[in-house]
């Protein structure tokens, strides 16, 4: 039984902004964190988010970055600590049963959606791709299946029509902090109530690769706009191919009326002032930012014709 006279003891797996903020919630509440486990930043990845390792160093908390979180020596170290809780805050690897059964009070994960919706990878990006009007953060008990355990608490945030995934992720980070702060007292004193997920109301989604950002030739303007804002920088942007060369579409805006653009199918065009992406069904988007592969500068509407030899170019099918 946990001695309620001493601070709660937690081992924390964490990464990214959600990891930073939720770790700060624990430390601010006086939870004793004798070990933080995080990731080395991946070579080639754009690191636009906060550092869990830096927060741990700020508080003098031991922090490790094992390639394998299930290494026997790490498990032995955790057993010697004897934590009340194990928390996972945007850690990128699934934790196996040896971690889930190790803490006295349970193992809990913070997920970036309103579970049971958008279980799995890249939940914020998938929610934007599907044109959702809200998402959020959910604290749930971990079991052997990803994002499957009983829900402790969740908090919703709105997704506006032109929000990018990065903007939505910032809201989800705040939601995660709110959920953690208001759930922690109940977890510590044992009064927290959990309820099982109704799994039929959601499904799993996989991770996304840069090549998944190709804009479908037959997509309408609404679908294209959702894909563009879901993959807007700092993520690898959505793209079209023109003469087998990629043009990255970084920001778009729905147009109240479609411009007069010749041709059929998916087209990229300029009216001299603005760039336009015209869908196969004739619906259109004003392109606020686009970039040809390898170019540092954005593609300007007044340079379009000199660059492509025409004011309207059909996108490769």
Summarize the model shown.
The protein has helices at 16-28, 52-59, 72-81, 97-100, 123-129, 165-189, 221-230, 304-308; strands spanning 9-14, 32-37, 63-64, 85-89, 106-111, 119-120, 134-141, 151-158, 204-205, 238-242, 245-254, 267-270, 275-278, 284-292, 312-314. It is α/β, with parallel strands linked by helices and 317 residues long. Strand 4, helix 4 (97-100) and strand 5 (106-111) form a beta-alpha-beta unit.
What topology emerges from the helices and strands here?
Blueprint (H helix, E strand, L loop, with lengths): L8 E6 L1 H13 L3 E6 L14 H8 L3 E2 L7 H10 L3 E5 L7 H4 L5 E6 L7 E2 L2 H7 L4 E8 L9 E8 L6 H25 L14 E2 L15 H10 L7 E5 L2 E10 L12 E4 L4 E4 L5 E9 L11 H5 L3 E3 L3
Parallel strand pairs: 1-2, 1-4, 2-3, 4-5, 6-9
Antiparallel strand pairs: 5-7, 7-8, 10-11, 11-14, 12-13, 12-15, 13-14
Helix pairs in contact: 1-6, 5-7
Spell out the key features of this protein.
single chain, 317 residues, alpha/beta, seven-stranded mixed β-sheet, 8 helices, elongated
Mean pLDDT: 95
Q: Report the portion of residues in β strands.
A: 25-35%
Helix content: 25-40%
Number of helices: 8
The shape, in one word, is elongated
Low-confidence stretches: none
Strand order of the largest sheet: 3-2-1-4-5-7-8
Q: Given the helix and strand composition, which structural class is it?
A: alpha/beta
Report the C-alpha radius of gyration, rounded: 23 Å
Largest sheet: 7 strands, mixed
Oligomerization category of the chains in this entry? single chain
